[in-house]
Inverse folding.
């Protein structure tokens, strides 16, 4: 896992997590990342949110779009913030969002999720903690992959982490499956006596989660 600090003012970001590895219950072509005979992306792909549920993504506050070069897609959240401490209602300390994302590709192509890049902002005073937890699974599959990041205060600034799959697992040719992305943000003011917050948004209006794909012809 790669971790980066962006525009931090003070503090240390402590990131604990596991490597992202998406898998399918149906047989699929799996190869170590970097060793596949990879192809350039097809000319036409579409990406759409087919379901959105949770306190972190009320209707109309989560959108997806394909990269111009077709090498992946981005998810942008507009109201995904968890806050705790200093009189904040306890229900605001945990926010979650479950998205169902469908990637439609032309006939004769298949793809694998190679990496996911998360971005956001956190304000975690000394004595407080924040946490991001994300669960991935394909529609119809009992397998899932979980990543978890822990933020210890004091920290105040932008953050970004990268999860890379060591093995590329391709969607079976001729099938379309929904990728379910379940993300949770949780903050605990602890002994800080101050307000703590964590978001999947940035004040710079940057994209929040990036999914990078690898393509192959069937």
């Amino acid at each position: 896992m790669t971790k980066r600090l962006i525009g931090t003012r003070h503090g240390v970001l402590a990131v604990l997590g596991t490597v992202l590895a998406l898998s399918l219950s149906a047989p699929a072509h799996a190869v170590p990342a970097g060793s596949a005979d990879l192809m350039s992306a097809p000319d036409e792909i579409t990406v759409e949110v087919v379901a959105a549920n949770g306190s972190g993504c009320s209707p109309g506050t989560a959108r997806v779009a394909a990269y111009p070069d077709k090498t992946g897609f981005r998810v942008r959240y507009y109201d995904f913030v968890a806050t705790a401490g200093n009189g904040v209602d306890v229900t605001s300390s945990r926010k979650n969002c479950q998205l169902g994302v469908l990637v439609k590709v032309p006939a004769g192509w298949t793809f694998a999720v190679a990496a996911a890049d998360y971005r956001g902002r956190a304000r975690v005073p000394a004595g407080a903690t924040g946490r991001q937890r994300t669960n991935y699974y394909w529609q119809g599959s009992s397998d899932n992959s979980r990543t978890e990041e822990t933020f210890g205060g004091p920290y105040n600034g932008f953050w970004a982490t990268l999860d890379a799959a060591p093995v590329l697992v391709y969607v079976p040719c001729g099938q379309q499956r929904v990728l379910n992305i379940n993300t949770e943000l949780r903050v605990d003011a602890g002994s800080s006596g101050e307000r703590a917050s964590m978001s999947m948004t940035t004040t710079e209006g940057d994209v929040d989660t990036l999914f990078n794909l690898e393509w192959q012809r069937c």
About this structure: Residues 20 and 165 are 5 Å apart (CA to CA).
